Every structure is written in structure tokens, then in C-alpha cells.
Protein 1
Amino acid sequence: MKVVILAGGLGTRLAEETTVRPKPMVEIGGRPILHHLMQLYASAGFDEFVIALGYKQEVIKDYFRSLYTTANDLTVDFSRGTIEHRERTKLNWKVHLVDTGLSTMTGGRIKRLAHLIGDETFLCTYGDGLASIDIAKTVAFHREHRRAGTITAVRPPARFGTLEIEGSRAARFVEKPQAGEGWINGGFFVFEPEILNRISGDDVMLEHDPLMSLAADGQLSVYKHEGFWQPMDTLREKNLLEELWKSGSPPWVRLPSVEVGSYADTGAGRRVVTTQL
């Protein structure tokens, strides 16, 4: 089952970062958020990716072109003119990088990937958010309900912290909890290829006619995710994800091979996270 990742938007609300790179390439813990997202899917056994590119697509292409080299050691023999890779890590990923246009909408980008999606069920998400979602359970839920699509519903993060009061006394502050009420689109989908027939062209937003028509036809299941979910639309949200990574136990990490608890003191009050792919 392929994983479609929508990674072509302009990311204008995060202009501090996206003037030089696309939003999926903004780094959390020294790795692009796109890489973290792919690890989440790969940890559930889904390791073939179709990435829909647009804005500054060359940055993403260059990253994957050089990833194997940068993740491993090299022996360069100048006398023989050879380069030998000495593997430290192995990613079983297959990554299709596809230009889907600069101004194409989210639904249109999926439509442009039809030749790679084929007639198979596929996963889909945006390239700018992380969650503690169990992908395997989401897929199992989709298969159980046998509808054309499954959307993940999440609790939106609260904009402000809360103040708990006991009588006339401030008891405690709680920093920005998940909202206790309401559900929103969490951006993790499972689709049957039928969704492609509901997208007429480049100007179609996935969130409008395709999803609305599926819902109207009773063909859209809802998988409720009560756990961690965080988009990265602003610099504040980017910094929040960075702090969660530095905490040593980022809630979106599901790979047992990712070590997040090992730190080195740089002597300037900074902590460096040691990671292993």
C-alpha cells in the first residue's frame, strides 16, 4: 500500500522558514518534518511513498538524492576513482518524487498521481504535521468499515493554556492542552482509488468536493484519534515540536530504533539529541 504525501504547498504562514525551502523540509531535531512523518508510516510497515511536489521541489529531490550518502560512511579511493558506501543504517524506503505543479490544489495533486496509485487502496497525508496515530489500526478500521475513504478526526490543540481555580485561589496552570470538545480533520487518510473519480482537475481541493461528496454518499468513515496531534503552520508550532523532540520522548515517535533519550552537553546550555535511523 502506497503512502501519498502532499508536499507542494507554499507554506506562507511559516514564511520565516519557507522562503528558502518547502515546509516539509523544515527541520525538527536535525531532520525534515517530512522524514519524521515517513518514519511514522514505515514503523507500521508502509514504506513506499509517493510525494507530490510543487514549491521548491528541487530541495526535496536533492535531499533524497543525497540521503543514502549522508546517512552512511564513505571510502573514497582517488587512485581508483571509486566511492564505497559503508552502511551504518538501512532504510527500506521506495520514494517516488513527482512534480504536481506549483499552483495545483490538494485534490488536483492526488489526481496527478493516478498513474502511480493505480487501482489499489492508498494512504494519504499532508507533509507538515505529526501525530501519535497508530497507522496500522487506522488501516484495519478502514478495511473493517468497507467505505471509499477514512478520515482521521483529532482534537485541536488549544490556543491558550488553562488556569485551574479552587475557590479564590489559583491552583495550577496547564499549558495548551488538547481541546476537550470538538473534532477536526487530522489529515491522515485511507482512500480507495474511487476518490480519483471525484477529482476533476488541478483546481480541486481535497477538503471540499471530494471529501464532502464522500460524506454525502455515506462513503467516508471517521477514525477518532484521541492522542497527540500537532500541525506545523507557524514558527511557534515549529518551536513546540522542536522542544518536544528535545524532551527525549517526542510523542509521535513509534520506531524502536530511534533513540531520543541520549544527550550531549555542548557547554552553552544546549542539548543535542543523538538519533539513529
Protein 2
Amino acid sequence: MVGKKIRQAKKALQFCVENLNDSDRFEIIRFSTDVEPLFGQLTEATKQNRERAESFVQDSRPSVARH
């Protein structure tokens, strides 16, 4: 996923993270050929964890397909 589609996906995920309540729990898992969880478990949606998630999403880059 690249270009407009990745930007739309990131924007949608950012919206979801921003709208979590403090009492919610969440996890973000980045995947392609590998799987990379952000926290490794469900985590409380504190302001600090939401900020960490927002950085995780923004820092995500498409992987290059290997043949």
C-alpha cells in the first residue's frame, strides 16, 4: 500500500486513536511480511500511550516487496 491509500489508512487510524477514551484499551499491529505490535498487549489509552501510537502510525513506511 502506497501513496494516497496509505495516507488514507494512516488518517483513519489516527482518528481512531484520537477518539479513544482513557478507560479504553488498545493495541496497534503493523504487518506486511512481518508482524510488529506496538505494545505487545492491550494497553490503556492514556494520553502518553495515544501519543506513542500516533508516532508509531506516522513513522510507518510501506515495505518493499521482495521476489
